[in-house]
Amino acid sequence: MCEEQTVSLLDVLKEDEELEEEASAVLAGSDSDHCSYPQGYVQRQALYSCHTCISNGSEAAGVCLACSYKCHEGHDLFELYTKRNFRCDCGNTKFKDLQCKLVPDKDEVNTSNKYSHNFSGLYCTCRRPYPDPEDQVEDEMIQCVVCEDWFHGRHLGSLVPDCVGSQEMICESCMNQNPFLWIYADHLAAAVDHVTQDAKDVEGRGGHVGIYLPDNRTDVIESTSKRVRGEPEPNCRLEELQKISQNRTRTGAVFWPSTWRSKLCCCSSCQERLSEAQLNFLFDELDTVQAYERRGQNKDQNQGGHDPLMLALDNLNRVQQLEIIHGYNDMKSELKDFLQGFVAEGKVVTPDDIRQFFEQQQSRKRRRVDAGPF
Ligand SMILES: [Zn+2]
Ligand SMILES: [Zn+2]
Ligand SMILES: [Zn+2]
Ligand SMILES: [Zn+2]
Ligand SMILES: [Zn+2]
Ligand SMILES: [Zn+2]
Fold first, then answer.
1. Which residue has the higher pLDDT, 222 or 36?
2. Domain coordinates of the chain in residue numbers?
3. CA 215 to centroid of ligand 6, rounded, Å
4. What is the band of 204 on the pLDDT scale with cuts at 50, 70, 90?
5. For residue 270, which ligand has an atom nearest its CA?
6. Cβ atoms 22, 293 nearer than 8 A
7. What one-character DSSP code corresponds to residue 290?
8. Of 64, 84, 252, 265, which is most buried, counting CB atoms within 10 Å of its CB?
9. C-alpha 98 to ligand 3 mean position (Å)
10. Can you give the pLDDT at residue 211?
């Protein structure tokens, strides 16, 4: 056994901590003990749909994190990652045979909930499951901040930037439904060369990403923030941007820099426009997935007391990670025993040992669907 192929128990624990932080980012923002129903439509929470309770063809329903543990244990669940403005459906009239153990008394339906094909385990414009047994292409799934569907990077119609983790994405269909967003895109978003098959063949995914920086753009975008009290209401920034012509192609998904929401014009007519389009959440910095994850991390830190054995390892894909996180409590003692066996015998744990452990674990767990990249 050569040096590189082994990991010490210490390495395992160190990696655990990193994975644990990422895991808590997804789940700690949601309550794993109490059904979120009494809070009403929650700004953002982790959601699941249950294939065991809601079979194909019947109405879509979503349940909260706590209900996924307490009411749907052992069921076939789709992980929907987080969605905004949703109220837990667990046990309401959409469920024929299930009573919620946490909040049995619910309204018949939650009329403001929005459902997409994600609730039937389908994603993207190609309407495929994820992971997809028939798809061997390695690709990342990216969530649109408007429709909250997940898309294959290669089905977005534009090149995925390298620093995609820090950028919000709006899919082409949502852009076209809200054409004024293209005006912002001209000026705020990195102009990513659009994918033609030729370009893809030649350049692959790491193709050229250019950013337009017109001289007069910044002034217009910053003008409102520099305004002194008592000055008259400035012109609509969106209108001003519209006057500055740009050559950005208006096709494909748009990737936005991290501060883009704060650059949207909030004059009264723009507020009205966003509100009519049901896009007011774009004015709210707390709506972002990043803000949700920060809340989760803070909550987790306040609770303190990390168990360093929570998870092992790298070389696990996101599906496996989520699988492990979700089944963590069941699995913790088994993992501890497993690792302690190595300590007792003075052996090093190899990645293969760990992989084997999780494969055994995973075959016993309920199915989870990858929630996408970070
Ligand atoms: Zn619930
Ligand atoms: Zn169920
Ligand atoms: Zn429930
Ligand atoms: Zn697709
Ligand atoms: Zn969309
Ligand atoms: Zn405006």
1. 36
2. 3-28+308-362, 37-117, 146-287
3. 21
4. very low
5. 6
6. no
7. H
8. 64
9. 9
10. 38
